[in-house]
Specification:
The chain is elongated. With 427 residues, the protein is an alpha+beta fold. The protein contains 15 helices and 17 strands. A hairpin with a 4-residue loop joins strand 16 and strand 17. Bound molecules: histidyl-adenosine monophosphate (HAM).
């Protein structure tokens, strides 16, 4: 029979232990930063009714048109088409509405961490299953929340030890001022219609803002001359953007205004931003992105609720941490391995194990019948700092041999002083 090798699905990857330590560190830093910024954690399902994405993210977006993993109904009692979540915001908005969070004390600040799924063409930094850490604030339309959102994303990346960070920010206005901008934009592009690519001809009718984001070289040249959205903002949107930037100045966030910043999701109003690192070769792909979406809660059937948030792409951040050789504290491995010989020793060892655990010392113990040599070899393989050797004689005298495996020296201690001795040596 021929041997079969199964591969992980295209665009997915295994996270092996040597990389996983970065993930743990990322999670811990993010959790601490967000708790300190007043956010609490939420979990929502990995799949939702596909409509929340098509309505929320937008019918004409790449995510909805080309990238959703749809789960078609398989029996007559299931009438809903579900989709693996391509992003977290729409699901959190659904949860906000369903759980009546508008009756909670506002603003409601939530964060989440988990896998997202997009059927994209896999390449470096672009996966079909990828992790996002996201944060969303509901119920505050002031620039204070735009600030808190950008600042907390910035602060996570700064605390991780990343350098050369930059925020690109813009405002794309509100339903009052955006139509006027669209009109200007359409007028400008209609005059250049012969030079536009096929995709842009569609964008011109369906989603004019995305004209500014076309990757086609000729279209990019045209976009450089296009009207600037910041010139079309209504007074309220202009002040809101100014206030946001003033907060960022205050906190020392390095930012650039990029008036052609267009996001791939349709729900945004006012503030939009991306965070990137710049290396020798120039700007890298975004580590995270977000913005304000004051209309989304209502669009998905909830009460009028302003909201703002962002997501960070965890794979990309970890790649940059490794590229920039960021030093992370290594998690504690096995600190003590108990080696015992005989029934009485097993009895005593159980008690020692519990005492060590209580003191938060990482202890490895298997009450096996292996010999001394075998158990010590196992301890060495685990990179354990100490071995505690309990023979029948030690067990009778309530003593134990403490062996330092890095120096191969050992001393005998009474069990009652053992824990303190180990704590002292682990410092
Ligand atoms: P997004 O720009 O689609 O926004 O994604 C946010 C971040 O997720 C990106 O900047 C990138 O780092 C990462 N990312 C996106 N797609 C992939 C992929 N295929 N592979 C690896 N990483 C990826 C959103 O998802 C919005 N929900 C952000 C938001 C939250 N806006 C308001 N609240």
């Amino acid at each position: 029979m021929s041997r079969v090798f199964y591969q992980s699905p295209r665009g997915t990857k295994d996270i092996l232990p040597s990389e996983e330590i970065y993930w743990q560190y990322f999670f811990n830093v993010a959790q601490k930063t967000l708790s300190g910024a007043g956010f609490t954690k939420i979990e929502t399902p990995h799949f939702e009714n596909a409509e929340i994405y098509s309505r929320g993210i937008g019918e004409t977006t790449d995510i909805v048109q080309k990238e959703m993993f749809l789960l078609q109904p398989t029996s007559s009692d299931e009438q809903v088409t579900y989709a693996l979540r391509p992003e977290g915001t729409a699901g959190v908005v659904r949860a906000y509405i369903q759980n009546g969070m508008n009756s909670w004390s506002q603003p409601v600040r939530l964060w989440y961490f988990g896998a997202m799924f997009r059927r994209e063409r896999p390449q470096r930094g672009r996966y079909r299953e990828f992790y996002q850490l996201g944060a969303e604030i509901f119920g505050d339309e002031s620039a204070k929340s735009d600030y808190l959102v950008v600042m907390s994303a910035w602060e996570i990346l700064r605390r991780l030890g990343l350098s050369n960070l930059i925020v690109y920010a813009s405002s794309i206005g509100c339903p009052d001022c955006r139509p006027k901008f669209y009109a200007k934009l359409k007028k400008f592009y209609k005059e250049k219609i012969n030079r536009l690519c096929q995709d842009c001809l569609v964008r011109l009718e369906k989603n004019p803002l995305r004209l500014l984001d076309c990757k086609n070289e000729r279209c990019q040249e045209i976009a450089k001359e296009a009207p600037n959205i910041l010139d079309s903002l209504c007074p309220e949107c202009r002040i809101h953007f100014q206030n946001t930037l003033e907060y960022l100045d205050y906190f020392g966030v390095r930012y650039e205004i990029e008036s052609r910043l267009v996001r791939g999701l349709d729900y945004y109003t006012r503030t939009v931003f991306e965070i990137a690192t710049i290396n020798d070769k120039g700007r890298q792909s975004a580590l995270g992105a977000g913005g304000r979406y004051d209309g989304l809660v209502q669009l998905l059937g909830g009460p009028v609720t302003p909201a703002v948030g962002y997501s960070l792409g965890v794979e990309r951040i970890i790649e940059v941490m490794r590229e920039q050789k960021v030093k992370i504290p290594l998690p504690r491995g096995v600190e003590v391995t108990i080696v015992q010989l005989g029934d009485k020793a097993k009895e005593v060892s159980r008690d020692i194990h519990d005492r060590l655990v209580k003191e938060n010392i990482n202890v490895f113990y298997i009450p096996s019948n292996d010999g001394l040599r075998q158990q010590l070899q196992a301890a060495a393989k685990l990179d354990s700092r100490f071995a505690l050797i309990v023979g029948q004689r030690e067990a009778m005298k309530a003593e134990v041999i403490l062996r330092d495996l890095s120096t191969s020296t050992q001393e005998t201690f009474a069990i009652k002083v053992l824990v303190d001795e180990i704590k002292k040596r682990l410092k």
